[in-house]
Every structure is written in structure tokens, then in C-alpha cells.
Inverse folding.
């Protein structure tokens, strides 16, 4: 049996490709699906990166706020260090009067005592001291104690130009008891000594 196709040639040519249409649709659907999946994946990645960026910006803003709040403490610390430096420089140029008074008390001869000691970088040193004397006509031992005191004071590194300004014999009765059973006064040689307090600035300039 012979089949005769009476359709026009152009229709026959068109129908020859009809069987490929399903494959084309399948491939197109697969491509569209891949494109959709890639787009969804990119959107997910972009969303994650956006969240990370937002968190980073928030963290940066918090750290910036903390840094600004701590900046005042950094400034105050700088001011404190400057004040400490200025105070150290000021103290380095001053004489420790407590140490000087202690040195003076340590170098005094055993038989010498004081009732007034004034030390100042501006006014210098002034000391009123006493030493006992045995008898009025012979007071050489008393003056020897005075001379030893002046020599020892002059040897101190913080004192200079030590001089004896006044020295006279007196009766010392400071420790006289209120109810006198006997005379508790003693003959002493009272003397006043002055000197110049040497500051570290003077020492460094002298070197």
C-alpha cells in the first residue's frame, strides 16, 4: 500500500521540525531554572554580605562612640603627665628642707643644741644654738665647739657661705623647774649662724 502525502511542501518542511519543539522547551526550562537558581543564590549572598556590612558599620559606630568617650580620658592623662613633668622639674630645682635640717642635726657636735633653725632658699639658713662653757674667764672650749659647728655646716653640700654673726655668754634657764629647789640654770655660749642654701640650679651652673 502506497501512502501519498498531499500536503504542500512548505507544510511538510515545517512539520519536520515539530518533533524538536519539546526538546527545545525542556532545554529552555532547564536554562531558566538554572538562571533562577543562580539569581536566588546571588540574592542570598548579597543579603548575607549586606547583613555583614551592616553589622560591621554598627560595630564601627559603637567603637567610634567608645573612642570618643575615652578621648577625654586620654586628654586628661596627657594633661596629668604634663603637670607631673612640670612638678618634677620644679621639685628637681628645689632643696629638700627636711633632709637639710636632718643633715644639720646630724653634723652638730654632741655638746651643741639649737632652739631655732630656719631654712629657706630665699633667706638662707639661720640657726640659734648653744654650747655650755665651764667658766666665765675661760670659754675657749665653747668657741671651739662653735668653730667645729661652723666647719661642719660649711661642709654640707646644700650650704654655703656659713658665718658666725653673734656669740655671747648667757645664763640658760629654759629648763628651770617651777618649784625651785636649787638653781638649774647654766652658763652657755649662745651663737647665731647664717648660711646660704645652695639650690640644684646653682650646683649645675657651678659645674
Amino acid at each position: 500500500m502506497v501512502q501519498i502525502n498531499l500536503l504542500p511542501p512548505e507544510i511538510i518542511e515545517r512539520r519536520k521540525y515539530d518533533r524538536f519543539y519539546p526538546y527545545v522547551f525542556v532545554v529552555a526550562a532547564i536554562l531558566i531554572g538554572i538562571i533562577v537558581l543562580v539569581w536566588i543564590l546571588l540574592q542570598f549572598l548579597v543579603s548575607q554580605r549586606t547583613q555583614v556590612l551592616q553589622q560591621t558599620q554598627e560595630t564601627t559606630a559603637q567603637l567610634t562612640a567608645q573612642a570618643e568617650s575615652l578621648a577625654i580620658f586620654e586628654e586628661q592623662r596627657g594633661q596629668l603627665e604634663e603637670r607631673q613633668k612640670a612638678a618634677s622639674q620644679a621639685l628637681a630645682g628645689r632643696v629638700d628642707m627636711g633632709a637639710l635640717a636632718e643633715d644639720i642635726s646630724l653634723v652638730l657636735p654632741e655638746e651643741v643644741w639649737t632652739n631655732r633653725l630656719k631654712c629657706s632658699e630665699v633667706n638662707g639658713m639661720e640657726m640659734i644654738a648653744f654650747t655650755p662653757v665651764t667658766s666665765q674667764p675661760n670659754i675657749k672650749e665653747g668657741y671651739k665647739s662653735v668653730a667645729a659647728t661652723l666647719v661642719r655646716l660649711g661642709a654640707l653640700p646644700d650650704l654655703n657661705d656659713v658665718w658666725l654673726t653673734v656669740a655671747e655668754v648667757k645664763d640658760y634657764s629654759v629648763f628651770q623647774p617651777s618649784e625651785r629647789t636649787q638653781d638649774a640654770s647654766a652658763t652657755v655660749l649662745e651663737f647665731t649662724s647664717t648660711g646660704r642654701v645652695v639650690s640644684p640650679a646653682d650646683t649645675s651652673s657651678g659645674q
The two ends are 139 Å apart (CA to CA).
